[in-house]
Amino acid sequence: MPAPMSILKKILIALLVLAVLLGAALWFVTRGDTAGLSVDEVAGTEPTLEDPDAEMFPTVRIAKPVGWNDGEKPDTAEGLEVVRFAEGLDHPRVLQALPNGDVLTTLTRSPKSEGDGGITAWIADWLMTRAGATGDSPNQIVLLRDSDGDGASDEQIVIADAENGLDSPSGMGWHDGTLYVANHDEVLAFSYELGANSVAGEPRKLMDLPPGGGHWMRNLELSPDGSKLYVAVGSVSNIGEQGMEVEQGRAMIWEYDIAADRQRQFGVGLRNPNGLAWSPWSGELWTTVNERDMLGSDLVPDYLTNVPVGAQYGWPWIYWGENLDERVKAPRPAYLVEYTRKPEFAMGPHVAALGLVFTAEGHLMGKNFASGAFVAQHGSWNRKPPSGYNVVYVAFDERGNPQGKPVPVLTGFLNDDGTTKGRPTWVEWAGDGALLVSDDTAGIIWRVVASGAEPGAGISPLESNPLRAQRELRGDPRAVFTEEDYARIQPAQ
Fold first, then answer.
1. How open is the CA angle 367-369-373, to the nearest 5 degrees?
2. Degrees to nearest 5, angle at CA 360 with 358 and 363
């Protein structure tokens, strides 16, 4: 019979071997996929797309937020200057400027998850905690007012909170005495007059939204005439791995007709649409979209694109126009490949493109930024090396088409040691023409202008003559469709 010390020694050796194996496994998992391309190479109208390389474990590179020291500020493009418009805010996300010069911001985080989500949910929670994105949602809308016109907010007033029905609020819009707010699970309408320090009365619920989920933010944009709302809803999953049933009503942009109290799907196949804005050239709706993960550090690029009514962008089966994602288990709808649109402009892989505005009349950004779009890029958690963590400008040509590569406007958020001072989230035009940028983990709203700039001209809409509707048949009358010309059974793909 072996001595007790011998047994103890064997146990210790076994534990040591197990620790070494676990350490080796952890080392392997955390190495991840190193990018072979620069962010610029995977950006623009014709990005370089590597062959997909499915990952069993995601590449994890979390930038822990450490904040900005007193007096610190982001680096700017040449000719620009940046100051703090507001600070001391609890996780500011979306910005909404009002016609009287006041600015609203939602202080918000994700809703509390229900039940046990298992190991996947635990890992996601750990990642988001390290990134500074977890905790109780403040559920507030704060009014920021620059009453003395010095370029900095001197008033911070909570105009609505959880007692008013706010629950992880994101997108906002104001028109004719009504403030529209998108919670994670519904769209609300509040009575709110310009200059007031609070909303009035109880909100009206306009429409339900799919609640919470992996992508919980719900951005909102009013049509130029104020008659319709457009609401961006992201997917629960990466590529539908939880089944497409839970994705009903998600990964799309909804249109809500205010007068008719009726909604419809406007654009679909958009994994996680975020920023919404109207093209000043064409009047079309544009959006930023966060694409899928776990195909490596070089795939898939987030993008900026127009969204014509009825547009299909292919998620989860297809990315960047015609590239099939072979990992997707759900049956692919017939003819999806033929009807999937290619995005207009790649922002780069995993940059987390969020807030979006186009150059507006009266802007103070100077001639170098006078005809394009500004995008806040929240930054990657799964790319080696990291991408995003900046605000960029995308130039558009005279016909309203994006061109070139994204141009950095604000940088310096990411430190050399892999930590981050802050994370750009949203962009909005202040009433005086300055560009406002929300920095959620730092609790700051930045104000950007070109030194000595005069208010810039707006972008002139394109003039067009639509084709007249054909009101009579022309040509050979025998060339008509019969019942035999229609496919009664959709072919499987």
1. 150
2. 120
* Domain CATH number, residue 429: 2.120.10.30
Q: What backbone phi and psi angles, to 5 degrees, belong to 158?
A: -80, 115
Domain that holds residue 248: 23-461
Mean pLDDT across 286-305: 98
Name the average pLDDT for the chain. Answer: 91
The first and second tokens of residue 310, run together, are 């009825």
Q: For residue 491, tell me if it sits in a domain.
A: no
**pLDDT digit string, tens, across residues 438-467:** 999 999 999 999 999 999 999 999 987 777
| Nearest Cα to Cα of residue 439 among 78, 63, 68 | 68
Q: pLDDT of 16-75, one tens digit each? A: 766 555 544 444 445 589 999 999 999 999 999 999 999 998 899 999 999 999 999 999
Q: Which of 375, 420, 455, 436 is nearest to 146 (CA)?
A: 436
Please indicate, yes or no, if residue 55 is contained in any of the structural domains: yes
Strands 178-182 and 228-233, how do they pair?
unpaired
325 or 125, which is more confident: 325
- Residues 302, 42: Cα–Cα separation, whole Å: 9
The rounded distance, in Å, linking the Cα atoms of 277 and 285 is 6
Q: Please answer whether residues 95 and 458 qualify as being in contact, where contact means their C-beta atoms are separated by less than 8 angstroms.
A: no
Q: Are 200 and 224 in contact (CB under 8 A)?
A: no
pLDDT at 482 over 90: no
Predicted confidence band of residue 484 (pLDDT cuts 50, 70, 90): low
Task: Report the chain's terminal Cα–Cα distance, integer Å.
Answer: 67
Find where tokens 């104001």 sit.
174
The answer to whether residue 376 scores a pLDDT higher than 70 is: yes
CA dist 133 to 91, 112, 137, 181, Å?
8, 12, 10, 21
In a domain, 299, yes or no: yes
Is residue 382 situated within a structural domain? yes
Q: Provide the domain count of the chain.
A: 1
Which residue type occupies 9?
K
CB distance 437 to 68 below 8 Å: no
Rounded to whole angstroms, the Cα distance separating 133 from 135 reads 7
Measuring CA to CA, which residue among 341, 318, 342, 343 is closest to residue 328?
318
- Calculate mean pLDDT across residues 170-197: 98
